[in-house]
Design goal:
The protein is of the alpha/beta class. The chain is 41% helix and 14% strand. It contains 7 helices and 7 strands, in the order βαβαβαβαβααβαβ. The protein has a 7-stranded parallel beta sheet, sandwiched between helices. α2 links the parallel β2 and β3. The chain is globular. The N and C termini lie far apart (35 Å). About 4% of the residues have low confidence.
Length: 252
């Protein structure tokens, strides 16, 4: 994997990295020289495929199945990363659910499931990682947000609430972890060309304003490149920021 290896010697953990944006992030971090712990909830085949691709390019990677919305499993994933690679420098909180339902139809169980995977998991994985990140001379957390959390949308109250919470948590952690030398930022993708799960409709209720000025959807690699920048030496002066990558669909 050709790169200038700006992350050589670093270790990264990417939650929800078996496919789509998470997969692209794991591969990009590996190209930059980091050893990567890949994570999925159920699909060992997806996670192993990412590991195999990294290793085929000369990189280091391993995977662990874990539901990061559960405290024991989130902590176990971090422990597995330390046991495998000996350190942790970069945490990317990417795990998410893409579900849609009218507000009146959202059950409390569904509400909790979405907040669990998006917001609780960001809290749990970050809390389990901070002591290790503080030992790095360049610790970094990058959270993956959601555009509709900033614009609003129908049929996604649970997802929007969770993603908005991730932005707030990003700012709070930036304050708390700055004395430890750990940066914390949030990347907000616009409409990205990814494969949607069965729980998301093929035509989600995204406002017309989300149409990008550049006339196309973004690619997962474009989000991954931004994550690498924030996790690397060139991004050390950025913390507490919410950075939008949406082709001009939303101009905050």
């Amino acid at each position: 994997m050709s790169s200038d290896k700006e992350l050589a010697g670093r270790v990264a953990l990417v939650t929800g990295s078996g496919r789509n944006i998470g997969r692209a992030i794991a591969l990009a971090l590996a190209r930059a020289g980091a050893a990567v712990m890949v994570n999925a909830v159920h699909s060992a085949a997806d996670a192993k495929a990412v590991v195999d691709e990294i290793q085929a390019g000369g990189g280091q990677a391993a995977f662990k199945l874990a539901d990061v919305s559960k405290p024991d499993e989130a902590a176990g994933l971090v422990r597995a990363t330390i046991d495998t690679f000996g350190r942790l420098d970069i945490l990317v909180n990417n795990a998410a659910l893409r579900r849609e339902a009218a507000f009146s139809k959202i059950t409390f169980e569904e509400w909790r499931a979405v907040l669990g995977v998006i917001l609780d998991a960001t809290f749990l994985s970050s809390q389990a990682s901070v002591s290790h990140l503080a030992q790095s001379d360049a610790g970094a957390i990058v959270n993956i947000g959601g555009l509709s959390a900033h614009t609003g949308a129908s049929g996604r109250a649970h997802v929007i609430a969770a993603k908005a919470g991730v932005v707030g948590l990003t700012r709070a952690l930036a304050h708390e972890l700055a004395p430890e030398g750990v940066t914390v930022n949030c990347v907000v993708p616009g409409m990205i060309d990814t494969v949607r799960g069965e729980s998301a409709s093929s035509a989600p209720h995204i406002p017309a304003a989300h149409t990008s000025l550049v006339g196309r959807k973004g690619m997962p690699q474009e989000i991954a490149d931004l994550v690498v920048f924030l996790a690397g030496p060139k991004g050390r002066y950025l913390t507490g920021q919410t950075i939008h990558a949406n082709g001009g669909a939303y101009l905050p």
